[in-house]
Every structure is written in C-alpha cells, then in structure tokens.
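FAQ
Q: What does a multi-component entry look like?
A: The components come first, one per line:
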Amino acid sequence: MTPFQFDTEQEFFIDPQRCIGCHACEMACAECETNGQLPMISVDYVKRALSPQTSVQICMHCEDPACAKVCPADAITKDEFGVVHSANTARCVACSNCVLACPFGVPKKIELSDLMMKCNMCYDRTSVGLRPMCATVCPSGALWYGRREKLEEARPHSSPVHTFVFGQQEIRTKVHIMMPKGSTRLVVD
Amino acid sequence: MAKLPIPAEQLIETFGPHLNFPPAGGFTGRDEPDRVVATHCCFCGMQCGIKLVAKNNTVIGFEPWEEFPFNQGRLCPKGVQRYLQNNHPDRLQNPLQRREGTGFEPISWQQAMERTVGEIGRIQKAHGPDSFALLSGVSLTNEKSYLIGKFARIALKTKNLDYNGRLCMVSAGAGNKKAFGLDRISNSFADLTHAEVIMLCGSNVSETFPTLTHWIWQARDNGAKLIVVDPRVTPIARTADLHLPIKPGTDSALYGAILRELLRNDWIDHDFINRYTSGFEGAAEAVNSYDLSWAESVTGIPARLIQTATEWWGKAKTSFLLHARGIEHHSKGVENVSACINLVLATGRIGKPFCGYGTITGQGNGQGGREHGHKCDQLPGNRDIENPEHRRYIAGVWGIPESELPGKGLTAYEIVEAMHRGEIRGLLSICFNPLVSLPNNNMVREAFEKLEFYACIDFFLNETSRHADIILPGSLQEEEEGTVTTAEGRVVRIRAAVDPPGDARRDTDILHELAGRLGAGKYFAFQSAEEIFNELRLASHGGTADYYGISYEKIERNLGVFWPCPELDHPGTPRLWEDGKFYTSDGKAHFQPVPYRDPGEITDAEYPIILTTGRVVSQYLSGTQTRRIGKLVEQYPEPLLEIHPRLAAKHGIEDRELVRVVTRRGAAEFPAQLVETIREDTVFIPYHWPGKKSANQLTSGILDPVSKIPEFKVCAARLEPTGVAAPPANEARAYQSS
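Then the predicted structure of the entire assembly, as tokens:
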C-alpha cells in the first residue's frame, strides 16, 4: 500500500468576511503536538472601536518565499508540494531576517527556544489525508480546505485570489483569499 | 447555611477557580491514547460532535468528529478547550462538609449521605415537604433530567423543583405551546440552506452558537438575505444584509409594526391563514395603529429599515426566523415570541422545505432537559402537572397513587425568593450556579445565607456551592453515559470517556442512593443510563414530546433521531407541521394578539441609561466551567462595559476608565470599552463573572407573568465615571472575583 502523501489538489482558502473572531482556530492549532501549545495562526481585531471585524492570518506559503530567500542558514525550505516549512531547528540561528522579510507578518521568533516557528499547513495532518486543524474546526467557514471546484460551486459570489501586489512587488501564494466575484488580485497598498 | 465558613478568598485558594492550561508540549500519551470517544460538547444547545481522547482514565485532548452531520468537525473555542475539565486541579473528588472557620473538610460518602438525608427529614418533618426544594440544570442529560423530576416528586416529595432553563428557554416554550401546542424548533437547521430570507431576532449567533454560523453562510451563498435585529453590531450583524439596531425592551413593537406592514401590503398567505390557523383577526387588530413612524419612535430603528425588512420578509417564498434570549429575557418574553410567530403564520411559511421557525436553545440539553419533568409545572413528555389525565398516566408509569404526586411548585427565582422569606429552609442543587446566573444576586446571596441546610451535587465548587453544608462530588458530562436533545430536536448519545476521578460518583448513582435512603429505592432500581432512558421513553409516550420510538441503538445507527418519534418504526421528525395539523386543541396554529407595553423598568432622570447583558464567545453561562480554562479566560479576561463614544463623551468617560454602573439593585465597576457598535442610549455588560464583577448585581428580578423568566435584557442604570484607569485586564483576576 502506498503511504498517503500530501494531496496538492486540496487547497487552503481564507474568507475574511466570514471570520467571527472566535479564536477556535488559534486554540485548535496550539493543540497540535508539533506546535507545543503555541498557535501558528493569529486572529486580531482590525479596529474594535469601529467594528467587531477580525482578520485571521496563517502562513500564505508563497511560491517564492521571502522568508526562505533571506535566511542566512538555509533553514527554511519549500517542498515539492509547495508547502513552506518552519525553520529546520538544527540550522535556525534565530536572526529574525524571516520575521522582518515576510510581507504577511507570519513567522515568529520564539524567544524561549530561540527558534523561528510558523505554520506548515498542518503537515502532520495534511500529509496523511486530514484537513489542517484550523480549517477543520473553523465554525463559520472563514478557513476552508479542500478541492477548489467544490468551493467555487458552494460559494458562487466569491473568487479565490492568490496574487498580492505590495507596491512594485507581486507575490503569488499557495493559500487563497476569497474576494468579490471576478477579482483576480489583491492590491495591498 | 449562613455566611461562608471562611472568606471567599481563602476558599478560592483551595477550590479555585484556578486556570487550567495544557502542559507545554501537550499531554503525554496524546499520540497513544487508550480511548478516542465520539461524543458531544458539554456546552451550548448546538451539541457539536467531538471526539475526546483519554489516557489512564483521564481526558487529555480532543479530535474533530467530522462524521457528525450538524458540525462536521467544526467547533468554537469553548469546544476546543472543553477537554480541560476532567483533568482540572479544581475537580471535586471527595464528599465535603462545611466546617465553621476552616472551610470544608473531606468526609465519607456514608457521613455525607446520612447528614443530607437526616437534614431533609428534619426540615420536612418540622415545616412540611415543600420546605425543602431542588434546583437543577439542563447541562444534564435527558436521563438525569428525567431522574431528577422523578426524584423530587417521589423521593423528596416536594413540589418545589425547578431548573436553570427558567433563565433560558421558558419564554420560547410558553410562546410555542400557545401557538403550536408543542415546544420545539419547527425545523432542522438543514432548512436554513435555501431560505430566501433569514431573520435573527435577538440572537448573537456567532458568539453564543458559533457553529450555526456556517449554516447561515450556506444560505447566503445560495442567495439568502440576512436580517439581524440586535442593539449591538455583533459579529453576525457585521456582515448582515440588514441590521436593525433595536432599543432594548421594544421588540414586540418592531414585530407588531412588521405584521401591520405585511397586512397593509397584502404580503400574507390567506389560504394558509384560513385553513391552518385561528386568531388572525385578533392579532391583526392588536397592531392596527402600529405604523412605521410609531415603530421608529418606540424602537429607535429608522422606519425605512423596518420597511425594507418587511418587504424582504413579505415577498420571500421561503424564510427562516430564529430567535434567542435577546427577545426572551424580558418581562414580556412570551409576547415577543408570539409577535415573531405571528409573522411566520401570517406568511404561511412553516411546515414546508426551507420554511422554518424556532428558538435557538441555549444550554447543552436545554431542549431535552425541559421536556421530561424537570420543571415545576411539568411531567415527562412535556405533560402538565395539573392535568388529571397526565398525572394519572405518569403515576401509572412510576407505580404510585396519583394522589401522592405533588402539584405545581414555584419557579427558580421564586424558589430563591421563598428561601429569602424563610419559607423554603432546605435545598439540594445540582448543576446550577444561581449566585452568578440569577438577576438581582445580592438578594440571591442573602437567600442562600438564610438556608438551614444546603447540599450540592457538582464537579467544581462554584460560587453558590461555597454556601453548602454538604458537597457531593458528582460527574462531568464526559464521565457518564446518556443522551441529550440538541437545539434542532435531535436526540444524540453522550458517551462516557472516563470514570469520575477519585471518590467522585456519577450523578445518577448519587441520586439513586439518596432515593434509597429516603425510602424510595424501589422506584430507582436502574442498572444503567439506558434503563433510565427506556423508562423515559415510556413516560413520554403519548405526550407531545414523544420519545417512545427512540432507542440507544437507533440513535447510534442514525447519528441522532429527531423527536417526536412515537413508534420504533418511526423515522423521527426533522421538520414539523408538514401535514398542517398542530398539537393545539383545535389542531390549528394560534395567532396571539400582542399589544405593545413597556419593559418592566424604564429609564428616568435618575437612571437614564439602558443596561443590557449577554455573553462573549469564550465564556459559557455562569462560568463554573469556562472561568477555569486558562486560554478561554485569557481571550476575554474581565467583563467590559461596552459604551458608544458619544455617550462616553457626555459623561467624560475615557477608554479603559473604571465606570461605576448603578441600578436600583446595586452598583459595580467595570472598565469602559468605547465602541461604535452599540446604540448610544444603551450599555452592555457580559454576565459570566461572580462577586464584584457580576453584572447580575445590577439586573432586575422582574419576571414574565407567564414564563417567569427574569428580565435580564433591559433595566435602567446610571453611569458614574471614577476618573481611575482600570488595571491591566490580566491583573484584575475577574475570573476569581469575590
């Protein structure tokens, strides 16, 4: 029997308008043994004084990850399936270059262990056919993992977008953001 | 029993609340568990499926249960963290006895039972059987709820049994019985998915029933318009197609005006009204003068928004109206419910695919726990304790003369008032923390201080049980087999993942032994939860909440069965009323006339601000469980006073400034949170905290005349800025407040 491996037809989608700010994703992420009770996803109010709107951020798994490019120790790698992995603990020198370089503000330097950590798309779950913990528990569907056709059929008013424009720079990611129907890219500034 | 044996701060040192966090790196044995048990969350009425992971008779983690059809693995933060109770350092593991000046000392079960039964006998002999009361809760399974109803009437022989559903479901239940002759949501949530319009009336779905959010979004993906009626912009209101920011206490004015507008535009289903309903003319007459400008002046909602809501509701072919405590926690809670039902009946949108109506049941077993004799006026099968025929049937099932069955007793808040008056002198409680959850809780505390004897069955020593003479350590939901009935009316299986720790016992074992010692053992000869359920099935048979056709095996095979299910070959009833035959005496659905009246307490020059209360997503009810779970406490560490910046400016209140909130019942200080997401005439405080941080020091004990639900959702208050900045939230230790 061939062992199950990462299924590249299953993709990750984030729909910020559905986020209810409940933090179930954060708490569930922390339960994964590999994270040692530290969540690799963050939920924050955008501006609570004006709205209960929250934003949720996981690693976007860039096609050309800035975190890996700036790593002086080659500790961060993108695998054949497009998953950008957390820093190799033997190599990471905790220089924080990745923390500063990431356009989405994802990697964190864990002071206690002097290591960088970030979301690896629940590799221990997704590589055996399970969905990531955050996308499994999300009660509103703001985080969704599965086949693109199924999502597009279920959510006809939105389009998945994975191209982000930061000034002169365009970044493409493995993770998608749901945008109004017909959108093709998100211009950040 | 008088004041606390030692100051609360010292009791907290021993019994908590303390915060439980998973160990860094997680629990050991997580990857090699002894058992992975598919069961349900212990918290709200959604009863999400969840798998509990156990090792060495301890719950150490969870896994999503993706096969359970309602939530398919989805959970809220409370669900994710719910596994941190059985392994909690505060978990009660020995019977305890109050000892003046030192707190509580461990005693044997024999001593605890003898003392409890002796005191019951002494008090009842001196003051009559009804001088000893029982207060219960509907986090308990159907089996325990049924057992408690039987225990109160046969073993304790008191009429004064009531439950914390009195703070939750009773307005909806009474309104539904008036209209339909039955108390259950009319549809499963699957009927949301293709409803053209969904109206949420006073329901903060995304914080109180987070996993229901997905079902609402499914409908929106299919084109549904979402209308949310709430004085605050809640997370579900934020993206709604229409948000009606209603002034608290004016709900029936809004629904009355919508009914009038539906009639004026003839957006009603005459055929349905003629064939299947009665009382339409009276309901129409009652709202005759409620035009849009009047409604705007009463509710504070711009007339054009009410007009839009009416048009969407009126022109839709399918719809689903859901309400919750926001309209039910009122001195006219039943009227508000009736006003909503009138809209559903006028448009004939019930009993058909994607045409739904119902209340969203709040507590874990808020549905099943309110059907089988847990209430002061009720017998199993949702029978009436004052109906001679119903009494005879249940007396027959129980094998007692009908004459020995007590009559109707007092409701929960009335029981506490009777304790305060000295009429009720002894109390047994289980699964209820009235010192936090009842309104006007300074009076509640005094009432508990007056009891001659108080025994409490619980798994943590909460704020109320600190007043007990005897503590009987019972079981958590994950420590006993049983069933619960979800907010959809789906009966599901609760599985024991572990045995109770230490010397703690299953709740049913405690009740059985008490019953035996009270001389009623032969009526409680149950060997298993399933045996209790099988008697419940029989006791419910022929009642409106008929479980006769539901067996454990059938529940397990189908992942739940919707009642009514009167025969074993009956498939269950996800959607009610498809045949147009209602459970009322004439078989028709009954409109109710709902003339508008003011809430029990209105603002005046002395108390000019409206205070409303509610919940936050990371806490559950009185916090007995969730104020002990570290990450849930960290997410929202202390109750905040939500206040609009313009109202704050009028008082010179700054963000995070401590504000003294004063009502006719009491005063308390809360940090201000300045947000534009609340009406300018209203402030909001969540109620999960005890002691000086308890919002229920301020709320009123005015009850609905029919349902006897307290008016938590509206009272009059005054704000007094202190000029002092609140300390950082994590230093306030509100979860332990005394």
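Q: Is there any commentary attached?
A: Sometimes. For this entry: Chain B has four domains: 19-84, 96-168+365-562, 170-359, 609-736.
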